[in-house]
Amino acid sequence: MMTKKIAVVAANGRAGSLIVEEAVRRGFDVTAIVRGENRTAAQNSVIKDALELTTEDLAGFDAVVDAVGGWTPETIPAITDAGIHLADVLVGTDVRLLVVGGAGSLFVNPEHTVTVDMGPDFPDDWKPLSAAAGKVLAHLRETDGLKWTFVSPAADFQADGERTGEYILAGEEFTLNGRGESTLSYADYAIAMVDEIESGDHVAQRISVVSK
Known about the structure:
By secondary structure, this protein is α/β, with parallel strands linked by helices. It has 5 helices and 10 strands, in the order βαββαβαβαββββαβ.
């Protein structure tokens, strides 16, 4: 099998760095796209802002992972801006775009009309973050000629959680594990993301991941 060649945008972040680590562990040829010094295990690096990336910059990769995050009012808009920009520059190419998404846009009813972030218990502080990721998902759904996959984590997404090597792969609906929990470590999320890059099973789909 040919070595997978992937790029991880915002690779120095918490999710991005673990995705890089998992991909390198499996023998992928990984390029970290970062705004400053590469602090990851990636073999290669490109120092460039996500919004400045061009179609030519991303040519030749099998997949590009959008791991751009934000936690403050100043940085949250970057989630939407980067996701939409990467989608637009990859339209019409064979390069897959995999987006580190959020749980807030998962559906809680069979009709797919109500999402997690509409619930009364959803924290107000999280709503801008959920909305930013939701805008990216909406743009992906509306974009033709793009090989995208949006990967939503569990509601309790644990940066320092254990790498168990196991997870439940679900779809558009909010899913609980056998203990009635929606939890997931960043490390297990990275495994699921790299599994999806390897399999290519969910092009033009949103999937979700929860711990076993």
